[in-house]
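Entry 14. Structure prediction run on the chain below.
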Amino acid sequence: MRAWMWTTPLLLAGCTGSYEPKPLTPKQMAELDEALAGKVAGEKQTCISRVPQTNLRVISNNVLLYRVSSKLVYKNELIGSCNGLTRGDIMIVRSFGSQMCRGDFTTTASPVSGITSGACALGDFIPYRTPKQP
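Output returned:
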């Protein structure tokens, strides 16, 4: 077995257990509220399609938004904290197939040096949809 295959479960193990995410700052909370304004939360999903291409919006080192369209946004609370996201580090998701799923391993890396800055896993995806007009 390759060395990286041993380290992935160990790194993910560090993302579970007693991890408590940092509370959002007032600025981050306002940004989240603005992005989800007028939308209603649906049932959480363990996977979402990679297609169509989604726009990633970083709220904090552990809260992400995937915008599919003006009417659909998925909120993801990461398992663990991917340090560096809020300062512009690149997010690298290791998933297989056409979907991103809860538990997919994620790292962050500096776009300049390529040095990794954090490791976490994707959490559940909560859809926020604009309600249909009567």
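Residues 48 and 126 are 10 Å apart (CA to CA).
Filed with the rest of this week's runs.
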